[in-house]
Amino acid sequence: MGGSRDAVDVQEVDDPEQDQFEDAVDTSGSGTGADAIGCAFRDMAEAARSWTLDGALRDNAEIERSQVNALRSWCQESEILPDIAEPLLVAFLHCSRGDLEQAKAVVRVYESVRSKTPEVFADRSFHSEETPEGYRVIVQALRDPDPTVFVYSSSSKAQFLTMDAVVRAEPTAPGYVCVFDMNAVQMSHMWAWGIRLPRKVFRYLQEGLPLRMQRIHFLNTTPLMDRVMRMLRPFIRKELQSIFQFHTADDMENLYKMIPQDCLPENYGGFLPPLEKLQDYTDKFLAEMNNMIPT
């Protein structure tokens, strides 16, 4: 869980990149909902471009400049991420709640897993709203349910590329909530995982991801979910399992108690545009963030 031991104002800027982003956002779809999503993604990209260490320290009292300098020096001296960018230094300290030694432990796993898992973290050519607690929501679903075309490494690559982008845009976000739609998931998809890659992916998710993961929701679950969990249990610590929430297709009202409908796409009874439209925003946002995401 990335080192966690717990579980917009729109500014008009005369900027060609901003104009390009605005042109790519079709706001004719769901009225103000679509407008808000386009603005939120544009604001996140702008926040990443205008991010400063002084601003981050001013807004996050639990992180001190001396800790940032100490973590940077340790990365350089140990030759683990010697060229690490300041936003990522702050993200490691933030997810570790200002604990320098914990932040170092997260950095070690982050670097180790990423360097040894090129099928997920190399050659990488995101939807996010917030709950009342300020947590950002990331939704993942199968675009094509055919298990013969499912590639687990590609799915994980897209997932962590998105997380890298949101961490770079908001290194000190209060927390994240992930939503996984299990609709159309079959055992054939699980067999495609293999053994080696899930072990690395779950180690990174639990120990090397520099963000505060608060909850993970699984939607449209069926009895198959019990078999899936039996397969995954060897890779998942009890700490991570404790933030899992499972919802059948008839259990959406309980989901809305934890994630307001304002933060969900219409595919799940929410008030945001459908996943297909949100994917368009995500793709454009990732293109905007391309040069700022660590490789």
TrEMBL record:
Region (Disordered) residue spans: 1-32
The CRAL-TRIO domain, residue ranges = 114-276
Q: Can you list the GO cellular component terms from the UniProt entry?
A: membrane
**Which SUPFAM superfamilies does the record match to this protein?**
CRAL/TRIO domain, CRAL/TRIO N-terminal domain
The record, for SMART domains, names: SEC14
Q: Where is the composition biased (Acidic residues)?
A: 9-25
Cite the GO molecular-function annotations of the record: phosphatidylinositol bisphosphate binding
Q: This protein is called what?
A: Alpha-tocopherol transfer protein-like isoform X4
What is the species listed in this Swiss-Prot or TrEMBL entry? Frankliniella occidentalis (Western flower thrips)
Which gene underlies this protein?
A: LOC113207085
